[in-house]
Amino acid sequence: MDSNNYPHQRLSKFLAYAGIASRRNSEKLILSGRISVNGLVVTNVATKVSEADDICFDNTYIKHQQDQPRIWIYHKTVGEICSDSDPSGKKTVFDSFPGSLGKVCLVGRLDYNSEGLLVLTNKGFIKRYLELPRNGVKRTYAVKVWGKHLTYNALEPLREGISVSGINYAPMAVEFLEKEGKTKWLEITLTEGKNREIRRALEQIGFRVSKLKRIKYGYFSLKKLLPGQIKEVLIPKALTKEIEKNID
């Protein structure tokens, strides 16, 4: 996966690697006159660009991708916000990242009261691929749930897909991990990342989440990474092929 070495590259592919849109949607942006090269609006999807060109989307400059794609995993703790800043002064995950990390973006988010695996990358096109529901990237969570009559069949609405306050949630894979009286641990896997999806879906059928921890995101697992720890991981070849196929 090399987004850097291109003497001349199709404009739509450049936009896809920059994380602006998929290659197909990038062509639509070009046709609609929203992309300019060296100050001139371009509407030809066959246009090629190089590192010497200044490229803008809706008059906003798009930085050329100079560095190699990288991915890190981080063990988020409860009480951290998935944002680069917070007006109220609450701690953010970026406060825990080393200064040497440079500019990175979060792949998906975890809410304030959730913990576990966060994936970080320095490339927008990696973030985009891993987040888009249509790509079917699985997110797995260990969820501690409280409630009466919490049985396998009681969770069937989640497996079938459920609607909460007009928001439709796709079917989830739900299995029991541990059972301790009225409190039980579930393993829930989904392929989309809507805000507070698991909490809202379980509340809709009468159960309360007391702890939620993401343990896996696509090819990446939390494993023995301690709370607050961050480490760089290799990008799997299979993921590289999937992303390149998606962009092309």
Highest-level CATH class of the largest domain = Alpha Beta
Q: Approximately what portion of the residues adopt beta-strand conformation?
A: 25-35%
Query: How many individual domains?
Result: 3
CATH domain fold name of the largest domain: Alpha-Beta Plaits
Structural class: alpha+beta
Q: From the alpha carbons, calculate the radius of gyration and give it in angstroms.
A: 21 Å
- Average pLDDT, rounded to a whole number, is 90
Shape: elongated
**Main beta-sheet strand count, sense and barrel state:** 9 strands, mixed
Succession of helices and strands? EHHEEEEEEEEHEHEEEEHEEEH
The separation of the N and C termini measures: 12 Å
Based on the structure given, which CATH architecture of the largest domain is correct? 2-Layer Sandwich
Fraction of residues in helix: 10-25%
- Counting H and I runs of at least 4 residues, what is the number of helices? 6
Overview in brief:
With 248 residues, the protein is an alpha+beta fold. It contains 6 helices and 17 strands.
Walk me through this protein's architecture.
- This protein has 248 residues and is of the alpha+beta class.
- It has three domains: 9-61, Structural Genomics Hypothetical 15.5 Kd Protein In mrcA-pckA Intergenic Region, Chain A; 71-134 and 220-247, Pseudouridine synthase I, catalytic domain, N-terminal subdomain (Alpha-Beta Plaits, 2-Layer Sandwich), CATH 3.30.70; 138-217, 2-Layer Sandwich (Alpha-Beta Plaits), CATH 3.30.70.
- Helices cover 19% and strands 31% of the residues.
- It is built from six helices and 17 strands.
- The protein has helices at 11-17, 23-31, 124-131, 156-160, 197-204, 237-247, and strands spanning 9-10, 35-37, 40-41, 48-49, 55-57, 60-61, 71-76, 105-107, 115-121, 139-146, 162-164, 167-169, 173-180, 183-190, 208-217, 220-221, 230-233.
- Strands 7, 8, 9, 10, 13, 14, 15, 16 and 17 form a nine-stranded mixed sheet that branches.
- A hairpin with a 2-residue loop joins strand 5 and strand 6 (60-61).
- Helix 1 (11-17) crosses helix 2 (23-31).
- The longest helix is centred in the C-terminal third of the chain and has 11 residues, at 237-247.
- The chain is elongated.
